[in-house]
Design brief:
Elements: H1 2-39, E1 42-46, E2 50-51, E3 58-67, E4 73-76, E5 85-90, E6 93-98, E7 110-112, E8 117-125, E9 143-148, E10 150-156, E11 161-164, E12 175-177
Parallel strand pairs: 2-12
Antiparallel strand pairs: 1-3, 3-8, 4-7, 4-10, 5-6, 5-9, 9-12, 10-11
């Protein structure tokens, strides 16, 4: 009789642990799904659809980071600029076109609270050959581009790292550069 009681108790305990584990897994799945869909409410928008060089031979792009998620996001970038990179569409792929030299990362990223936005102004010199931040030849400057930032959903100041958002979520709308 005592042996059966131990077996039944053991079976109940295992069943209880199994059910608790299933409940935790479902909870984690639903939480991560809510967070992922909520993070889609972050966007980067440029102020124009088409840019041309100024009379001083610069491309000037204003863009706004808009946080309509329900959490704080963290944006890092080189030196005083938030811009991590600008990519050009070549066929079906995005190719690195411009990137500020990354000497060091900001020790303290920009915190973009829920409901906040931040506008950044870029002034990129032309031609490409005279400024080493261009990754493409001067003749290839025309085309469709997008800006990409280093945006994190979580930031750990001790390790100076965090959870980077997926690439497509960190990209602006597309825009054109004409010469």
């Amino acid at each position: 009789m005592k042996t059966n009681h131990v077996r039944i108790t053991g079976a109940c305990l295992l069943l209880g642990l199994f059910c608790a584990g299933c409940s935790l897994a479902e909870s984690a799945d639903s939480d991560s799904g809510a967070s992922a869909s909520n993070l889609a409410n972050f966007r980067i928008e440029t102020d124009q659809a088409v840019y041309q060089p100024t009379s001083e031979n610069f491309i000037e792009i204003a863009y706004t980071l808009i946080n309509n998620t329900d959490q704080t996001l963290y944006i890092t970038g080189p030196n005083a600029h938030l811009l991590s990179r600008m990519s050009k569409r070549v066929g079906d792929e995005w190719v690195l076109a411009f990137q500020y030299p990354i000497l060091d990362r900001l020790a303290f990223p920009l915190q973009l609270e829920s409901g906040e936005s931040h506008t950044q102004q870029l002034r990129i010199p032309l031609p490409a050959g005279e400024f080493n931040a261009w990754e493409i030849e001067d003749e290839a400057i025309e085309g469709i581009f997008r800006i990409q930032e280093q945006i994190y959903s979580r930031w750990d100041q001790e390790t100076v790292s965090g959870d980077l958002l997926p690439e497509e979520q960190r990209a602006s709308n597309t825009f054109e550069i004409r010469r």
